[in-house]
Write a structure and sequence with these properties.
The protein is an all-alpha fold and 71 residues long. The chain has four helices and no strands. Helix 1 runs antiparallel to helix 3.
Amino acid sequence: MLGEWVVDARRRTFELVADLDDPQLLGSRLAIVNPLLWEIGHVAWFQEKWVLRHLLNEPPIRADGDALWDS
């Protein structure tokens, strides 16, 4: 069931941003707001950490992923 939720969340996330171009994904530079593209990476990192790594004992996809997205 968790796997289905993750797959559905991934599909819905891609649907939400499918029509955005690169400048829209990066957004305006604000000290208190992360770019949308970073937030999407953060969501993917959580899915990887808790499903692939925690439940399935898979290695990280990116060696630097924790440093980038574990906030």
